[in-house]
Amino acid sequence: MPARSSPAAWAFTPAGPASSIDAWNADTARAFHDACAAEVSRRAKQRPDLAAFADDAAATPVPSVAAYISARAAELDEGPAGYDGERSRQADWLAAALQLSV
Questions:
Q1: Average pLDDT of the chain, as a whole number
Q2: How far is residue 59 from each of residues 3, 77, 96, measured CA to CA in Å?
Q3: 18-to-12, 13, 77, 97 alpha-carbon distances in Å
Q4: Predicted model pTM
Q5: Once rounded to an integer, what is the mean pLDDT over residues 35-40?
Q6: Helix (H, G, I), strand (E, B), or coil: what is residue 70?
Q7: What integer pLDDT is reported at residue 33 of this predicted model?
Q8: Looking at residue 73, what DSSP letter applies?
């Protein structure tokens, strides 16, 4: 299996002086979950064999689980580059929503 970038290698820092990420709350967690579930659903429209992944991503209450399901669906759809691309899309979403700088 090819090596993937590690989340530990992602160096996000808060854009402002706060020492925590205040923008991560129930609303942003839900929005992130929904964005990940929507991406799986988009893929499932093109690949019906991914429909169970879309159902699972929508059903889980845990945003990180929806994100993983979305990345796995992308990998099944496009190969390892799809997984990495989806994780990159997620990182970009989080950076923008949480006002992080990379």
A1: 86
A2: 29, 21, 25
A3: 13, 10, 39, 15
A4: 0.79
A5: 98
A6: helix
A7: 97
A8: H
Long-range contacts of 22-30 (CB under 8 A, 24+ apart): 23/97, 23/98, 23/99, 24/98, 28/97, 28/98, 29/63, 30/63
Q: Which amino acid is at 1?
A: M
Two tokens at 65?
A: 């689980």
| Residue 70 vs residues 9, 19, 43, 51, 80: alpha-carbon distances, Å | 20, 30, 9, 11, 13
d(CA 83, CA 35): 16
Residue predicted with more confidence, 93 or 21: 93
For residue 44, how many other CB atoms are within 10 A of its CB?
Answer: 19
